[in-house]
Amino acid sequence: DSACPLVDIDDVKGKTYDYVIVGGGISGLVTANRLSEDRDKTVLIIERGYFDDKPEAILPYYAKGVDESVMMRPRSAPVARLNNQTFGVAVAAVVGGGSVVNGMNYMRGSKADYDNWESLGNSGWGWQNLFPYLRKSTTFFPPSPQTVTKFNVTWDPAVFDHGPLSVNIDDLLFPDLLSVWSAWRVNRPDVPKPLDSSASIGPGVYWQANTIDPREGVRATARRKYYDPICARRKNLVIVTGQTGREILFRGLRATGVEIVSRGDGSVYQVFARKEVILAAGAIMTPQLLQASGIGPKSVLTAAGIRVKKDMASVGANFQDHPTAYMSFNLSNLSFPNPTTLDNNATYNATAWAQYALNRTGPIATGRGPAAAFLSLTHITSASTAQSISTSLLAQNAADYLPPIYADPKLLRGFIAQRAILASRFTSNTMSIAGFPMSPSGASPAILFKSLSRGTVTLNLTHPFALPVVQYNTFQNPIDLKVMLAMVRHSRNFWKLPELAKFSPVEVSPGAQYVSDEALTEALSKGGLVPSLAHPSGTCALMPEELGGCVDEKLRVYGVKGLRVVDASIMPLVPGSGLQATMYGIGERAGEMIREGD
Ligand SMILES: Cc1cc2nc3c(=O)[nH]c(=O)nc-3n(C[C@H](O)[C@H](O)[C@H](O)COP(=O)(O)OP(=O)(O)OC[C@H]3O[C@@H](n4cnc5c(N)ncnc54)[C@H](O)[C@@H]3O)c2cc1C
């Protein structure tokens, strides 16, 4: 299926295409697929990475780790409130982008997450408008009837379609999952009927799908599902690999093409866009490319010696991710098999690989986490605490807890608009603020979905074409820490439930000895807490320009012509979920919108 002709760079140099897309990750490949449905239009994708056919890119088993050979890992700037640690920033560089290396969890945000986008002044970007595209991208594969019955797995078939991306719920569910699952549902009359998280219902305890094709037992990637099946037939779609788009070319303020540097020999050449240049390089690299091309904060561009084409503070601001406390517990008396059996039991391991070789099923064809609790602030604290957090948030002088770029009045106005929406959601039980993936192994991450702190992505001032400077600014806003501490305590209390006593859970990280706010904060800030779950977003936000937006409702970059952004940079507020489901939906929508000349 991947017998697609590899295009030589010499065939592309100096040529003109209708659309030039920078980045062949999720959004780039989905957009390209839909654009090239019109055979009269030519589409070129420029991708920094290469096609990767290693087992790591194909077997679901390998999602337990990340194949570093296809990653760029810019080192973040020190994070002041995490003991000045620096962190490797997860940026995929491979055809298929994040979909080739990610954890394969397929989850959509809740309705509220997308409605928040619309409330920021982005008409047509609420759940109702986005849902058809989320749905359109997917085909759902349930587990076997036996598994469905034994675990009472539930989902709503109406939220899936017959789209290119196969998503499944694993057939292999570990027996102890039943205990953990029912413990999450104890004392939770307010949590809605469990479904699959793709139903976007809001806070609750849900099954969650994986981007796996169970018919072949392989990871379902943007490449495998949106590129391989069409590449041989669509002569109007071309991808060049190992090529980095380093500067957008302009005639006046109209984008006319891209300057490219070849990873192989460093040669530099140009390609041209008759209609549009489309950025799909992801939330870390797109703002870098915009800034390197003269679109970004004047202060940064001037300091880097770049001529300002459009002074825009929003490029690289509003950076959000999901800080995560990797809590863990030692569990005893686990049933057989459990999530650790594959690594600990040689016989089971050998049988699993044999089963995979025979018919592509079993543990090697299985995803990582079939279920998670998505909780609101009122769930993890109480209605009155949530109210007081919301009130104290609104009472803050916003600029006190934001990076210096927010001296820009539009950016500050935009943040204050975001804050008003989040503060009201904090008390409403419509939006998940914390995620707790569920595994009967003792691994118990606590994911903060709704940071109020904002990071930045900025050019390396002395080497503008090098990897950018990533400032997470985790916990700059003290409310984030307050919520994270509440989440850690919530998780501790969870593992003390009588329903889980048979496992005799013992907290290993951060460690039960850390009790006070101060002790817990110190322990977390020295280790176990990371600023990112590889969900960078927001760095060229879809918002009105007077609120510090970067792209308009048609994803066009403000102030210039012929230039759009379609990747995770556009999310004005990060959803309470992994990002890939939303990125497939945005790619679908962008492709249709651009094709129809909107
Ligand atoms: C390790 C990891 C685990 C994750 N786990 C999950 C998960 O379990 N569930 C979930 O929902 N989400 C997960 N995600 C997030 C999800 O995969 C991303 O949000 C999603 O891929 C973003 O899509 P995108 O189109 O914005 O960017 P990407 O998919 O990252 O695509 C960007 C592409 O642009 C290319 N590129 C960058 N710069 C240039 C340039 N200058 N020139 C040419 N090409 C360029 C890159 O090589 C890449 O292929 C994970 C991500 C990672 C990295």
Automatic annotation (TrEMBL):
Using the record for this protein, list the coiled-coil segments as residue ranges, or answer none.
Answer: none
Residue numbers binding FAD: 94
Molecular function terms, GO-annotated: flavin adenine dinucleotide binding; oxidoreductase activity, acting on CH-OH group of donors
Q: Which GO terms describe its biological process?
A: secondary metabolite biosynthetic process
UniProt cofactor(s) = FAD
> SUPFAM superfamilies from the xrefs?
FAD-linked reductases, C-terminal domain (SSF54373), FAD/NAD(P)-binding domain (SSF51905)
Domain of life where this protein originates: Eukaryota
Gene3D superfamilies the record matches: FAD/NAD(P)-binding domain (3.50.50.60), Glucose Oxidase, domain 3 (3.30.560.10)
Domain Glucose-methanol-choline oxidoreductase N-terminal residue range list: 282-296
* Keywords attached to this entry: FAD, Flavoprotein, Signal
Q: Does the keyword DNA-binding apply?
A: no
Q: Which PANTHER family match?
A: DEHYDROGENASE XPTC-RELATED (PTHR11552:SF115), GLUCOSE-METHANOL-CHOLINE GMC OXIDOREDUCTASE (PTHR11552)
The UniProt entry's sequence similarity note says: Belongs to the GMC oxidoreductase family.
Q: What is the protein's given name?
A: FAD/NAD(P)-binding protein
Organism equals Glarea lozoyensis (strain ATCC 20868 / MF5171)
Biological classification of the source: Eukaryota, Fungi, Dikarya, Ascomycota, Pezizomycotina
